[in-house]
Amino acid sequence: MDRLEILTSPVIPKELFVHGFPTRAGGVSKGKRTSLNLGYRWGDEPEHVAENRRRVAESAGFAIERLQVTRHVHGTRVWVVGDATPEPPEFDVLVCDRPGDTLGAFAADCIPIVLADPARRVVAAAHAGWRGTVAGAAANAVRTMVERFGSRAADVRVALGPSIGPCCFEVGGEVVDAFRAALPPIPGLIVPGPKKDHIDLRVATRALLERVGVHPEHIDDRPPCTRCDAERFFSFRRDGLEGGVHMGFIGVRTNGTAAR
Q: What domains can you pick out in the chain, each with its CATH number?
């Protein structure tokens, strides 16, 4: 495939934070995982995944040995990196203020979300499928940044990574009911489809972030759809367990200039 490609967001200050969302290009994995699969769990060769992660770290400019990741379980539990890690290490939200550590959130249709506070130099990474979205994984990241590190929600910048769009996210009635129970009527949240309704996870995530005080202009919520673009992205709905996994990442730069 083509050379490695990492998407970034204009709302995250690049001089302070290393961040990005790699596409599937530029790695060494084979088959439906061609080529930059970044997850070990679904059966890829471990050496392929290790090399793919190394390439991302080298291209983005962070230390691979300080990449912090955990297993995701579609919940909202938060690990503050540096705190003791209970067993099993299963968290969908990671938060950190240590320069040099890079947080990763895996996804293959779910939303990898990265958050940054330029004022307090705090970062977070979250994984949110429909369950995590409804339960408030992204909002939980903001709350932890505020409560543990003194961030102001209005200062936090949030970027949503490549994920399944409303064009492709057809759901059952129980999922629609869960979103209706969690959120007031919002234009575009529930999209009628030819057979079943579709949900726009991005609309829901924005609403929940704004509810906890994130400034609307600080939310980048229009990533590409993973299921639509097989050339650039993995998709669980399209490829199943034979497919690959993406990773959104973010960290505080060790040489960042002062926030203003």
A: 6-165+219-252 (3.60.140.10)
CA-based max dimension of the chain: 52
3 state DSSP class of 123: strand
- Alpha-carbon span 19 to 33, nearest angstrom: 23
| CB 43, CB 187: distance < 8 Å | no
Inter-residue contact 113 to 105 (CB < 8 Å): yes
Q: pTM for this one?
A: 0.96
- Cα dihedral value 97, 101, 106, 112, nearest 10: 40
Question: CB-side exposure of 97: number of CA atoms within 13 Å?
Answer: 15
- Cis peptide bond prior to 118, omega within 30° of 0: no
What is the rounded distance in angstroms from the CA atom of residue 193 to the CA atom of residue 167?
9
Distance (Å, whole) CA 110 – CA 235: 9
Q: Read off the pLDDT of residues 219-243 as tens digits, 9 standing for 90 and up.
A: 999 999 999 999 999 999 999 999 9
Closest among 90, 96, 115, 93 to 105, alpha carbons compared: 93
Report whether 49 contacts 234 (CB < 8 A).
no
Quick one: how many helices (H) and strands (E) in the chain? Answer: 6, 13
User: Which helix (H) or strand (E) covers residue 191, if one does?
Assistant: strand 190-191
pLDDT digits (tens, 9 = 90+) for 69-98: 999 999 999 999 999 876 788 999 999 999
Residue 196 φ then ψ, to 5°: -130, 165
